[in-house]
Specification:
By secondary structure, this protein is an alpha/beta fold. It contains 20 helices and 30 strands. Strand 11, helix 9 and strand 12 form a beta-alpha-beta unit. The radius of gyration is 28 Å and the shape is globular. The protein binds adenosine-5'-diphosphate and zinc ion (ZN). Zinc ion binds next to loops.
């Protein structure tokens, strides 16, 4: 490829440092053969040496340049068109280019000495010997291997601590045989694959597939689609056909999913289908070690992979000839990275599609309003799957007005009754309570004080199981005190409800029911989420309690009842998107009911039974909700009719942060107002952030708003200048297209 070889003596390098530009370095003749676009290199920066990435070639100017010192990897990590994409993304999100590229690449490639290696593994198989060894640990481990027929060292390490010496012993005693194998890059490979049943597409699916295929088959060009299908309408099948066509045309496909660990069913479905069709698949996920990720990345860059599935960072995967990007559940909040390089993978998928001349397919039952408006405007082609497959009906949704059921337990009488019925009928139930722990806080019943995090100023969540009080932002933990800090009273009682408390109550009220809980606390261990999904599929759980995690994409055919414990809490967040979020979450969780042969029903408990968002959920009326919500957004110039940038100033010293925020706001206002109404930028604030203190930092925010993107861009391009004017100890972060403004 001529475009990636060196043409002049200087290279454009994105250095891993907080600089808002790339730098030029000269290429010494000794390295001339090795420096390519996509190379990771070592370069001098001031008195230090840092990692940089070669992004392009430069004409050497008159000023002498410093030399590149070393090329770190033997092969380039990406191609020229990827470099262009990374740089454009960095500019869009006002992120230093080197930091953006570092974020885009597999972890572990920014330190100077890191060279992840390819790992190997060992496979242990039981021999025919039927005797039992002497030691208890030997017996334990051998029995594990015997019951599974075989096990890899990495599997055994997950089950037993330091099993290696015991395994050596078992081998020398002739109980097991060992074989060196390449370490499995993909833990999902060990998950049983779904038997893929060939389905006949229904007319709506067929029409969607036809339109996407038509776009794929023309001369390569950017086309984007919104696959807007109600829950259970068979969107996955449309993705699969589109991918198949892409591969047939000799190009590659990228599939983005919200969180890989939470989508084992989708991955299994893809895997079985791809195995059948001999497709080379790479699953990029957070469970990979640095070495495995590096390895997979290089395979992708070499063109040895046809399909990449991954969470948001996979949008940067260096597929050489990308023909299709699928963004599943495009409404999901996890596509936005909330720290550092604050990109949104859904939006970058569209940017990349444009640059790579690929087809982009965004799928959801509840697209974000920004996407929906783009479809209404004709920027995205709107494909609709209005019905569930196999003539299944959407569930009946009933609102339970809690003001009519005061004093009942966490479950109102109607929900209790519905649960009893479902249990009686041997059907499964999901209960959504979007709050983990036992209770959101401990309240002193003498003085009314609640226990708060000393770093973040929010209440500490009480967990009975872990006997702890814990901050969900900074992970500060203490044991629950026996008396109040303020008044020494001893009546510290859990207030409000969390999933632990709900579980306790269900166990009390329905002692025969098999109850399980799915939230961050019960799924933090490797494989725990998989296990819960497996148990649900096998019918070993009657009632699954959980946070929003249970709303995500699961396809449990035996679930007929979905109960929502507290629909209100999220409605009251001071965020213009709160109604949209509630609508989306409740529609998604409701969509888990009645996906099998029996019809589903949904009960939503609320104190806000007359809230319009809930009403639209009950009627499965996305369009009605969207029209109303969009008209309100338009009146206030909120997205999608206006654009936002959130500037957050933070630091240890409250006064310094306040003063810096006032100063910045004044600067912004004096440089912002010029231009016609349309080109104006509104400067809102400074005001304390919704979380005014987080991890011990005081935080103020300034929101920039404009009906045009252009003037906003011009403003934030000056951000480097503003940064340089900040007092020491105050940090400015810029969030372009912010998703939540905490
Ligand atoms: P969605 O992602 O739209 O919620 P899924 O893709 O999970 O829906 O599909 C829901 C169920 O319908 C799956 O079990 C899938 O196998 C099945 N399905 C998909 N297409 C068809 C079809 N044309 N006929 C029958 N069943 C189908
Ligand atoms: Zn905290």
């Amino acid at each position: 490829m001529t475009s990636t070889t060196q043409q002049t003596q200087a290279a454009e390098i994105a250095v891993v440092a907080p600089l808002d530009k790339t730098l030029s370095y000269s290429i010494p003749t000794t390295l001339a053969m090795d420096v390519r676009i996509g190379s990771r290199v070592r370069v001098p920066l001031g008195r230090r040496q840092v990692v940089g990435y070669v992004m392009g070639w430069m004409e050497p100017g008159d000023t002498p340049l410093k030399d590149i010192l070393e090329v770190i990897d033997p092969h380039p990590l990406f191609h020229a068109h990827h470099a262009a994409f990374y740089l454009r993304a960095a500019r869009y999100y006002v992120c230093p280019p080197g930091v953006a590229v570092k974020t885009a690449l597999p972890a572990g490639l920014s330190a100077l000495d890191s060279k992840p290696s390819v790992l190997s593994d060992k496979l242990y198989q039981a021999t025919t010997s039927e005797e039992q060894p002497q030691g208890a640990r030997q017996r334990e481990i051998l029995n594990f291997i015997r019951s599974a027929n075989q096990a890899t060292l990495s599997q055994l390490r997950q089950q037993f601590s330091a099993p290696h010496a015991v395994l050596q012993r078992l081998e020398s005693l002739g109980f097991v045989q060992v074989e060196e194998i390449e370490r499995c890059r993909d833990p999902f490979a060990e998950v049983a694959v779904d038997d893929h049943q060939a389905v006949v597409l229904n007319p709506a699916q067929q029409q969607a597939v036809n339109q996407v295929e038509e776009a794929l088959e023309g001369p390569a060009s950017f086309r984007s689609f919104l696959l807007h299908g109600v829950t259970g309408s068979g969107k996955t099948e449309v993705y699969l056909r589109a991918i198949a066509r892409t591969l047939k045309l000799g190009r590659q496909a990228l599939v983005l999913v919200p969180e890989i660990a939470l989508t084992p069913q989708l991955v299994a479905r893809f895997r079985s289908w791809f195995q059948e069709h001999d497709v080379r698949l790479a699953v990029l996920h957070s469970g990979l070690s640095d070495g495995e990720r590096y390895d997979a990345w290089r395979q992708v860059a070499r063109g040895d992979i046809d399909v990449v599935i991954g969470a948001r960072s996979a949008v940067f995967a260096p597929l050489p000839d990308l023909g299709l990007i699928v963004v599943d559940e495009e409404h999901d909040g996890s596509y936005k990275q909330s720290e550092g390089f604050r990109y949104n993978a859904r939006d970058l998928a569209l940017m990349r599609g444009q640059m790579d001349e690929a087809v982009v397919l965004l799928g959801s039952a509840t697209p974000v309003l920004t996407t929906y408006q783009r479809a209404l405007d004709g920027h995205l082609t709107h494909l609709q799957l209005p019905e569930r497959t196999a003539e299944r009906k959407l569930p009946q949704v009933q609102l339970v007005d809690l003001s009519q059921h005061e004093g009942e337990s966490l479950l109102s009488e109607p929900l209790q009754a519905a649960l009893a019925e479902a249990l009686q009928a041997g059907e499964q139930t999901l209960l959504l309570l979007n709050r983990r722990g036992y209770a959101p806080f401990l309240l002193c019943h003498d003085c009314g004080a609640s226990l708060r995090c000393p770093n973040c100023d929010i209440t500490l969540t009480y967990s009975q199981v872990q006997s702890s009080l814990r901050c969900h932002y900074c992970d500060f933990r203490i044991n629950p005190p026996s008396s109040c800090d303020h008044c020494s009273g001893v009546r510290l009682l859990p207030e409000g409800m969390g999933t632990e408390r709900l579980e306790e109550e269900i166990r009390q009220n329905f002692p025969d029911a098999r109850v399980a809980r799915m939230d961050r606390d019960t799924t933090s261990r490797k494989g725990a989420h998989h296990r819960l999904v497996g148990q649900m599929m096998a019918g070993e759980i009657d009632v699954l309690i959980g946070t929003q995690m249970i709303a995500k994409g699961h396809d449990f055919p035996a679930v007929t009842l979905v109960g929502v414990l507290n629909a209100d809490t999220a409605l009251n967040l001071p965020d213009f998107r709160s109604a949209e979020r509630v609508f989306s979450l409740l529609s998604q969780v409701a969509g888990r009911a009645g996906r099998g042969d029996r019809p589903g029903r949904v009960m939503i408990q609320t104190y806000a039974a007359d809230n319009y968002a809930l009403d639209y959920v009950a009627r499965h009326d996305y369009q009605g909700f969207a029209e109303l919500e969009l008209s309100q957004r338009q009146a206030l110039d909120y997205p999608p009719f206006g654009y936002l940038v959130n500037l957050v100033l933070s630091g240890n010293d409250e006064n310094k942060v306040h003063n810096a925020a006032e100063q910045l706001s004044a600067n912004l206002m004096s440089s912002a107002v010029a231009g016609s109404m349309d080109m104006a930028v509104e400067v809102l604030g400074p005001a304390p952030c919704l979380l005014p203190r987080l991890r011990n930092k005081h935080r103020m925010q300034i929101l920039l708003k404009s009906v045009q993107r252009e003037p906003l861009r011009r403003q934030i391009e000056q951000v480097g200048r503003f940064r340089s004017q900040l007092p020491a100890g105050v940090v400015l972060t810029v969030d372009v297209d912010p998703v939540d403004m905490f």
